Structure prediction request, 140 residues.
Amino acid sequence: MIGHPELATDSRFANFSARRRNADELLAILDDVFALRPVAEWLSALRAAGVPCGPVNSVRDALSDPQTSARGMIIETEHPRFGTVRQVRSPVRVGHGDTSYRRAPARHEDAGHVLGDLLGYDAERIDELGVGGAFGPATR
Prediction:
């Protein structure tokens, strides 16, 4: 299919173990071959031959792929410095509810929730940690 029938009988590539042992050689050959035609042509030919395949997209290509949009894989969050930020949504979907997204917190922005609500630390313990430098330079 790729124009190199000799590879099918080459002992270096006869089975998975041999291909793994000789991966550097095989990949160099395949890199040279695949560089000869555009990705879309290779995908069409490989799919027609029954080879499961897909493109390795750049971030730009992945963000503009129709399947990415159809699956709702792009989210937008507002950032105080960068404005609206488009990013990839987590592919993990658990349960029936929709997940909410927000920008990443600034340093120490969610400390009250994490330290107090989640970890159960009281104000005195949080202060001790701050004085001890647990959150960066000592806060006293």
Remarks:
- The first helix runs from residue 16 to 21.
- The mean pLDDT is 90.
